[in-house]
Amino acid sequence: MNILIRENAISKKVKEIGKKINKDYKDKNPILVGVLKGAFIFMADLLREIEIPVEVDFLSIRSYNGKESSGVVRITHDLSLNIENRDVILVEDIVDTGRTINYIIENLKTRRPKSLVVCTLLNKKENRIIDVPLTYVGFDIPYVFVVGYGLDYSNKYRNLRNIGVADD
Ligand code: IMP
Ligand code: MG
After folding, report:
1. Is 78 assigned a catalytic role?
2. Starting from the edge strand earliest in sequence, which strands make up the sheet with 2-5, in order?
3. Using one digit for the tens of pLDDT, what is the confidence trace for 12-46?
4. What whole-number distance in Å separates Cα of residue 32 and Cα of residue 142?
5. Looking at ligand 1, which residue's alpha carbon is closest to its atom 12?
């Protein structure tokens, strides 16, 4: 495992993003929507940097087998909150081809939120197939497969504190 982003750098970045959200959503009451499972640790840390009134919800999607994008995305667990006329911030671990987040955006738009933006910890822009606007980005990373801090390889390594490049 080669460490790409250390725990303290992640923590600093999460604080920065939290500050921006506090400023951008001052006097608002957004819903943070986490994309499971990968975003759960980022969500937990980001949420604790939010000082404005905020609500939290999650959805689960299935899009990957091992390291390969299947290109097929489906929601396996839906939101419990009604997002109609609400300010929604989608919280993702990583945007790679953009297919997953694009699918989720299109799906959530049909529920008529007042606003909908994406907050992703990691951005692998080299491999983008569908261009999606990313309002909050933690780190732009090269086209490597990363694990840790919630991100997995075949459901393992989510527990690692640093983000690293998985060995083959
Ligand atoms: P996309 O649909 O290609 O943008 O892929 C996004 C999803 O694939 C993310 O939500 C992750 O769950 C997963 N993914 C993409 N790249 C990585 C990686 O490097 N490590 C772990 N998961 C990844
Ligand atoms: Mg994910």
Report:
1. no
2. 2-5, 163-165, 146-147
3. 999 999 999 999 999 999 999 999 999 999 999 99
4. 27
5. 38
